[in-house]
Design brief:
Elements (H helix, E strand, L loop, with lengths): L1 E4 L28 E3 L5 E5 L3 H5 L8 E7 L2 E7 L1 H5 L8 H7 L4 E4 L2 H14 L7 E4 L3 E5 L10 H14 L5 E5 L2 H10 L10 H5 L11 H9 L5 H5 L3 H8 L1 H10 L5 E3 L7 E4 L10 H22 L9 E3 L5 E3 L1
Helix pairs in contact: 10-11
Length: 327
């Protein structure tokens, strides 16, 4: 009988799968959400060029990803060179080509980007057992109680940035007491490490865009003269809720640490296991070899169906004296 089981997280080395290589999707957690209560520490990572770096588009050449939106074609991601020339996601392809006639255009692959982001989250299991993707271009690592294993939060942040840099991935990071604040700091104040309770003060000078609010909300707030997070935090909650809804209030309260922020940590991909049970114990070498051959054939079929490979296998033998022998 074949089954799948979960085991401890693998020991991942400082090596990254080639960008774009397909890998199985991680199994979602059994609980709906893991809430990050007061006192937790979150390391947020922001990958500003996620889509173009996954495709290995040259950073020094104007290039962009695009997708259709109705009858229009819009940019979804740009390279650093294209951004320096004035292009930005959301811009019409026709306008971008008018600005840069030699612009390299590549169709966007949002599902592939999301899969790669999940792969990167699993890669961060070397840093914490609780990594989570933060679409469209971020990662959230619950590092509560693990920073001392890396020499402190500053050393942990440096190690995380080094791992991505060695893999050729641009990344910005920050650490705070909740996911919203940490992600905003990673986007607009990279390198920041905010002590517990200091999230409001750290966020006040940041632009509203750091919170990833809806574009319409940001535009309306700008017309009201509200351009910084601190300006929004100072507004009365009642009128703000009536005009923008409860979602904006929830985001502001979560960023300030006034309410818990849920994240969804990933589980590691499952191991594959096959099993054979006997009514009577087997004793001869021939019987053991025959059983092992059957188990290997069944395991290889499961791996082939899943498109997986293996670098390590273990044979567990449950003996009649109650002991477990592992080879």
């Amino acid at each position: 009988m074949a089954n799948r089981r979960f085991c401890r997280p693998p020991r991942l080395q400082d090596a990254l799968p080639l960008p774009g290589r397909s890998s199985p999707l991680p199994v979602p957690p059994t609980s709906a959400q893991a809430v990050c209560p007061s006192g937790r520490r979150i390391l947020a990572l922001h990958l500003p060029w996620l889509a173009t770096e996954r495709l290995r588009l040259p950073a020094d050449r104007p290039a962009a990803c695009w997708e259709a939106a109705g009858s229009r074609r819009l940019l979804t991601a740009v390279t650093p060179a294209a951004a320096a020339a004035g292009l930005a996601p959301g811009q019409a392809v026709a306008d971008a080509q008018a600005m840069l006639p030699d612009l390299l255009l590549v169709p966007a692959e949002r599902e592939a980007d999301a899969t790669w982001l999940r792969d990167l989250a699993l890669w961060c299991l070397a840093l914490t057992p609780l990594p989570a993707p933060d679409p469209p271009a971020g990662l959230l690592l619950d590092v509560t109680g693990v920073a001392h294993l890396h020499g402190g939060e500053q050393a942990l942040l440096r190690r995380a940035l080094r791992r991505f840099s060695r893999a050729g991935i641009t990344v910005q990071g920050a650490i705070a007491g909740n996911a919203i604040a940490a992600a905003a700091l990673a986007r607009s104040s990279p390198g920041a490490i905010v002590m517990p309770g200091g999230e409001s003060d750290a966020l006040r000078p940041l632009p509203l865009g750091a919170l990833c609010l809806l574009e319409a909300q940001v535009s309306t707030l700008h017309r009201m003269g509200v351009r910084r997070i601190g300006d929004a935090l100072a507004l009365p909650r009642g009128p703000l809720a009536r005009r923008f809804g409860a979602a904006l209030i929830a985001t502001l309260d979560a960023a300030a640490g006034l309410r818990a922020v849920p994240i969804q940590p990933l589980r590691t991909p499952p191991d594959y296991a096959v099993r054979r049970e006997f009514l009577e114990p087997i004793q001869t070498r021939e019987a053991i070899d025959a059983t092992l051959s059957q188990l290997l054939d069944a395991l290889c079929r499961h791996l082939a169906e899943a498109g997986r490979g293996t670098r390590r296998m273990a044979l567990l033998a449950f003996r009649v004296d109650g002991t477990l022998q592992e080879v």
